[in-house]
């Protein structure tokens, strides 16, 4: 479990959690290995939680009419599918392993249980997600002006 908590400590999003909270999440999480070419999850699937990249590189490919160019995720501690920690909704992105990859899968149920037990943590999560959404929407503003 200590290994999982250490992985979570390196993930920017989970900095809001204390050591005990990361230990609890680590206990509920599981380490996964994906060979090069394997799919972490496909667009249209509900991933049931998020992955924290431990090592390797992933390709993100968006689906649909508003799809952006594929991009690579290779920074250890990157959280893949962050919104899946709070929402049960099909994702518009397919994540595929470019190289052999290891992730830590954090189940939505475990994260939500932790939030229900700690109002301060829940508020920090809300604030962080709101901030991220504002950043994403701000990045879209130049495109809106062109329409």
UniProtKB/TrEMBL annotation:
GO cellular component, one term: cytosol
Tree of life domain: Bacteria
Listed transmembrane segments: none
PROSITE patterns: CNMP_BINDING_3
Cyclic nucleotide-binding domain boundaries: 13-132
GO terms, molecular function: DNA-binding transcription factor activity
InterPro entries: cNMP-bd_dom, cNMP-bd_dom_sf, Env_Response_Regulators, RmlC-like_jellyroll
Protein name, as recorded: Cyclic nucleotide-binding domain-containing protein
Originating species: Devosia oryzisoli
Taxonomy of the source species: Bacteria, Pseudomonadati, Pseudomonadota, Alphaproteobacteria, Hyphomicrobiales
């Amino acid at each position: 479990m200590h290994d999982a908590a250490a992985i979570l400590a390196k993930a920017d999003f989970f900095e809001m959690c204390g050591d005990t909270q990361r230990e609890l999440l680590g206990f509920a999480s599981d380490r996964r290995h994906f060979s090069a070419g394997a799919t972490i999850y496909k667009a249209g699937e509900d991933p049931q939680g998020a992955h924290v990249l431990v090592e390797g590189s992933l390709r993100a490919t968006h689906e649909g009419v508003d799809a952006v160019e594929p991009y690579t995720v290779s920074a250890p501690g990157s959280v893949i599918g962050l919104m899946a920690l709070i929402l049960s909704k099909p994702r518009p992105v397919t994540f595929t392993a470019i190289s052999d990859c290891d992730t830590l899968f954090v189940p939505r149920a475990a994260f939500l249980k932790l939030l229900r037990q700690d109002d301060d943590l829940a508020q920090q999560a809300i604030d962080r997600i709101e901030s991220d959404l504002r950043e994403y929407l701000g990045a879209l503003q130049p495109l809106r002006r062109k329409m």
